[in-house]
Amino acid sequence: MVRINSTLAPFSTDAFRNGEFLTVTDADVRGKWSVFFFYPADFTFVCPTELEDLADNQAAFDKLGVEIYSVSTDKHFTHKAWHDTSPAIGKIKYTMLGDPTGVISRNFGVLIEEAGLADRGTFLLDPEGKVQYIEITAGGVGRSATELLEKIQAAQYVATHPGEVCPAKWKEGGETLKPSLDLVGKI
């Protein structure tokens, strides 16, 4: 299972983005903040609501310098067919990774082996390819792009402000904490 500060494992896969097929590798991911957003399958029910939510918030992710990679065990051809037929998925501009062999899903520890599908897993990677945030939910529980954006802002703040941490419900511009002996027992 992937843990916080785990490093992105090597991979190479076919993908669909902006009307084109391309190959994406782990090397393409490094150097920028990235979200790997795993979902069970194309042409399903909760998945398009989540992927559309990400697409609707694309500008906010772009502003933070974050690349989105949605991942399912479908092939890149299936991603294109879904993109071309679903109004919700048609909004997507980010990269949709195909993972038909389950290598990427397995690398992140979200592959349901007996089903050949991925759990709903969200992973935030820093520019060095290290995992900074993990969320895994049950199949029937959708995720929120707004909540994810808040986690990204907090992770980016902590990464650029050594010695500071973000408390619960922290929002950009909010008060942070500086852990020290003087702070122990006073929160």
Automatic annotation (TrEMBL):
It comes from the Bacteria. Keywords: Antioxidant, Cytoplasm, Disulfide bond, Oxidoreductase, Peroxidase, Redox-active center. GO terms for cellular component: cytosol. The active site is at C47. It is found in: Cytoplasm. Pfam families: 1-cysPrx_C, AhpC-TSA. GO terms for biological process: cell redox homeostasis; cellular response to stress; hydrogen peroxide catabolic process; response to oxidative stress. It catalyses: a hydroperoxide + NADH + H(+) = an alcohol + NAD(+) + H2O. Residues 2-157 form the Thioredoxin domain. One of its GO terms (molecular function) is NADH-dependent peroxiredoxin activity. PROSITE patterns: THIOREDOXIN_2. Its EC number is 1.11.1.26. InterPro entries: AhpC (IPR017559), AhpC/TSA (IPR000866), Peroxiredoxin (IPR050217), Peroxiredoxin_AhpC-typ (IPR024706), Peroxiredoxin_C (IPR019479), Thioredoxin-like_sf (IPR036249), Thioredoxin_domain (IPR013766). Homodimer; disulfide-linked, upon oxidation. 5 homodimers assemble to form a ring-like decamer. Belongs to the peroxiredoxin family. AhpC/Prx1 subfamily. Thiol-specific peroxidase that catalyzes the reduction of hydrogen peroxide and organic hydroperoxides to water and alcohols, respectively. Plays a role in cell protection against oxidative stress by detoxifying peroxides. This is Alkyl hydroperoxide reductase C. It comes from Gluconobacter cerinus. The lineage of its organism: Bacteria, Pseudomonadati, Pseudomonadota, Alphaproteobacteria, Acetobacterales.
